[in-house]
Design a protein that fits this description.
Keywords: Hydrolase, Metal-binding, Metalloprotease, Protease, Zinc. Its cofactor is Zn(2+). It is built from 17 helices and 4 strands. By secondary structure, it is mainly α. The chain has a 4-stranded mixed sheet, sandwiched between helices. β3 and β4 form a beta hairpin. α15 crosses α17.
Length: about 400
């Protein structure tokens, strides 16, 4: 029997919580106390749904009890069925003193008792996450939800919100697996919810997941793609890092709050290397490079070798849980680093060709293969001049 890992918040959850507490402590603290429950929710449910009581639906209540016990939750669970022939779905309506699970569409007719436990476990896992550490993660959830609803919110917060809610779905899927104790059952329940089918093949779905390259991250907005969720469960059991679904490559065009920190550090480190490169070492270049510090200031002497940007980059962890897998860089991020190099290479007019040749050499050491073309496009070299500069950079005697 496969051992299921202990259920903990994802590394992404822990890292974002640490970052938010550091930069938005007051807002986080204000949102941390338990909110007053919606006084009209109970009446709305009684008026517009069918309450699924234990006497008429014992299998459902047994599945809920089983899930709550597996997750270590001691809470009253109520179940309701929405009216109408909607899409199969289940959702948690969070209340401070009880858990309310609302079913939609014909889902209950299609689930076995074990699949019911998985679906209940998924929803109750949301409650578990929101009650851990006295509501610490619920406060982040509220803060990011509020930010996502404000048109003035910076894009970094919006991307953090997108990744956060997907991380919460992966956590909830793990709660489903913990509740029913079987991967195939969990994936089968996931498929029935997503497709509305009564009969599905979870093993075939896992094989389908294996045909995808998921290292580029999920493109979902609130939930990772179902096939990615199945892949994440299978690999979580195997002890693999699955949070690449949330992060993907390091992309300067779509950073979240954590990636924004990483990109600032990466820019600062690379600028320091440029400023210390023979042929570019001058007060003017150092002054320009100092602008990449946070806050701006002298960068000092960089440590270690120039990083290679044409292979996955080992990046220092930011705020909390380390990122165990090196991050590849998107084409846009490599282009940004090329522009950083070119800006510093042309900052000091006195550097002349020596500075340009030094920058070409540094680009080769860093694996920034687009640099030659970018510099040519921006500076308008003739074919002859480009060939001369490239030959000098490569140490070719003409």
């Amino acid at each position: 029997m496969v051992e299921i890992p202990f259920l903990l918040p994802l590394g992404y959850h822990r890292a974002v919580l640490s970052h938010v507490r550091r930069v938005d402590e007051r807002a986080w603290e204000a949102l941390r106390p338990a909110a007053v429950d919606d006084p009209g929710l109970n009446e709305t449910l009684l008026r517009n749904t069918y309450r699924l009581e234990a006497g008429g639906h014992p299998a459902l209540h047994e599945a809920g009890r089983r899930a709550a016990e597996a997750l270590g939750l001691e809470v009253e669970v109520e179940f309701f069925q929405a009216q109408g022939a909607g899409q199969p779905n289940a959702s948690l309506l969070h209340q401070s003193e009880k858990a309310v699970i609302l079913f939609e569409g014909p889902l209950l007719d299609r689930l076995t008792p074990d699949e019911l436990a998985a679906v209940c476990g998924h929803e109750l896992a949301h409650r578990l996450l929101w009650t851990i550490d006295d509501g610490a993660y619920l406060a982040v959830d509220r803060l990011l939800d509020a930010a996502a609803g404000d048109a003035r919110t910076p894009a970094q917060y919006l991307e953090t919100h997108r990744r956060w809610v997907m991380a919460s779905e992966l956590f909830a899927d793990r709660g489903a697996l913990n509740s029913c104790g079987d991967l195939s059952t969990t994936v089968r329940a996931l498929l029935k919810v997503q497709t509305g089918l009564s009969g599905v093949d979870p093993e075939a779905y896992l094989r389908q997941a294996g045909e995808l390259d998921l290292s580029t991250g999920s493109r979902g907005t609130t939930h990772p793609e179902g096939v990615a969720r199945a892949w994440a469960l299978q690999n979580w059991i195997a002890g693999e890092d699955v949070e690449v679904l949330l992060t993907g490559p390091l992309d300067v065009d779509a950073p979240d709050l954590l990636d924004a920190v990483l990109l600032r550090e990466l820019s600062m480190d690379f600028a320091a290397h440029v400023a210390q490169t023979e042929g570019l070492r001058s007060d003017t270049v150092a002054t320009y490079a100092a602008g990449f510090a946070d806050p701006p200031g002298p960068l000092g002497v960089p440590g270690g070798a120039v990083p290679r940007f044409d292979e996955p980059l080992a990046i220092r962890p930011v705020d909390g849980a380390p990122i165990p897998r090196p991050r590849a860089l998107t084409a846009a991020t490599k282009q940004y680093l090329c522009y950083l190099l070119l800006d510093l290479a042309t900052a000091d007019p006195d550097a002349g060709d020596e500075g340009l040749i030094a920058s070409l050499r540094l680009a080769r050491r860093a694996g920034l293969t687009p640099y030659d073309d970018l510099a040519d496009d921006e500076l308008g070299w003739s074919d002859k001049r480009r060939a001369e500069l490239a030959a000098a950079a490569d140490g070719v005697i003409q």
